[in-house]
Design goal:
FAD/NAD(P)-binding domain; alpha/beta; 2 domains; 6-stranded mixed beta sheet; 422 residues; 12 helices; 25 strands
């Protein structure tokens, strides 16, 4: 790197970090992207890896291949352990040793992790779905439960093995529950002819409020529930998880659901970064409060974006922790750094909201396009397919995913039904 030029360090190779780095390609500065993984994960499709629909590499791309066209952008694999804003450096752990990386400008995009709301026993027994490792672990577990059930003579124990509880009625919980139900009813029942999968395999979706998909309009909420129940998912509203064990989920009303599988999709919180508490204000979910320009109030050369950033919109509501928000924040952070260097005014963040959508299963989805047009069923599903293919990074990934989706749709098959790394 050219040490005479400004140096920008980007922590995190998620949507926000990569879009910031790509916006700085070819500019008169040097950029270093740091992430503990050498790949970018297309997180909206993690549930398809977990349900045997896609291979892990089909929703991931090497960071180096994404940034290699930028001669001024480089990558370092390591875990950022702390930030020192006074010394203007971050500390990166590699092979057990910490090394400082100096910066002139810092973009923090560490992403988010699953929030269990202080329920330690739930955290100990539940599966999250925020990374490729978690998705593969969940896929291994789901298939292992069927293998165990196939050899289990006791009816009650077999029922517990084949009961899958998903907590959280947002898009992740809805998409995962629909995909699991279709996997069981259309694919695994053929693989396990000695099991009465249609009767014994249960997918239970638990939501603490009185509706699914809270941010969606009420007609789409009702449509989503009808569609997911039509494919066999049991929906339980106004139910809250109080406790979890190896063999059951206990609800606050005393209901006990025997199960060996709890999947937590009920909340997220900002990923931890040591050193920020002394220089940044934390809000709910450990998000960092930033100025409209995405800067830390007392450190104008430090930007926080994506799921870790807290910023309210014109109505006073926090911007959602969604990939499109992170992408747009990444672009603005890059533009504001260039403005700082050039002595120009900085721009505030304004989210261009193109709507939200969630898929439920084969030819089933709901979509609220531009927060004006409500779509449901097959048309919404086509819109969902098109958008996710558009945002997948890398032509090879798009082509592979499209072929897999077409094959799965036409044959009702799921090709990735293998147990790895038990």
């Amino acid at each position: 790197m050219n040490t005479s030029r400004p140096r920008v360090v980007v922590v995190g190779a998620g949507f926000g970090g990569l879009y910031a780095a790509k916006a700085l390609v070819g500019k008169p500065l040097d950029v270093l992207v740091i992430d503990r993984n050498n790949y970018h994960t297309f997180a909206p499709l993690l549930y398809q890896v977990a349900t045997s629909g896609l291979e892990p590499e089909e929703i991931a791309a090497p960071v180096r291949s994404i940034i290699r066209r930028g001669g001024n952008v480089s990558y370092l694999m390591g875990e950022v352990t702390r930030v020192n804003a006074e010394e203007q450096c971050v500390y990166v752990r590699q092979d057990g040793a910490e090394q400082p990386q100096r910066y002139d400008y810092l973009i923090l995009a560490p992403g988010s992790v699953t929030s269990f709301f202080g329920l330690a026993d739930v955290q100990a027994h539940a599966f999250g779905l925020k990374s490729l490792k978690e998705a593969i672990r969940l896929r291994n577990h789901v298939l292992s439960m069927f293998e165990r059930a196939a050899g289990e003579p006791d009816e009650a124990r077999r029922a517990a093995l084949l009961t899958f509880v998903i907590v959280g009625g947002g898009p992740t919980g809805l998409e995962l529950s629909g995909a699991l139900s279709e996997l069981f009813q259309q694919v695994l029942r053929k693989d396990y002819p000695k099991l009465d999968v249609r009767k014994e395999a249960r997918v239970i979706l638990i939501e603490a409020t009185d509706r699914l998909l809270a941010p969606f309009p009420e007609p789409l909420q009702r449509s989503a529930r009808r569609q997911v129940e039509r494919i066999g998912v049991e929906v339980m509203l106004n139910k809250t998880v109080a406790q979890a064990t190896d063999e059951a989920v206990v609800l606050k009303d005393g209901t006990v659901i025997p199960t060996h599988t709890i999947i937590w999709a009920a909340g997220v919180q900002a990923a931890e970064l040591a050193g920020l508490d002394g220089i940044a204000e934390r809000t709910r979910g450990r998000r960092v409060r930033v100025l409209p320009t995405l800067q830390l109030p007392n450190h104008p050369n430090v930007f926080v974006i994506g799921d870790a950033a807290y910023l309210a919109d014109e109505k006073g509501a926090a911007y959602p922790q969604l990939a499109p928000v992170a992408m747009q924040m990444g672009r603005l952070a890059a533009a504001n750094i260039l403005a700082l260097i050039e002595g120009k005014p900085l721009k505030p963040f304004h989210y261009s909201d193109r709507g939200i959508m969630a898929t439920i299963g084969r030819s089933a989805a709901v979509a609220w396009v531009f927060n004006r047009i409500q779509l449901s069923g097959f048309i919404a599903w086509l819109a969902w397919l098109g958008l996710h293919l558009l945002y997948l990074i890398g032509f090879r990934n798009r082509a592979n995913v499209l072929v897999n989706w077409a094959w799965n749709w036409w044959t009702w098959e799921r090709g990735v039904r293998i147990i790895l790394g038990r």
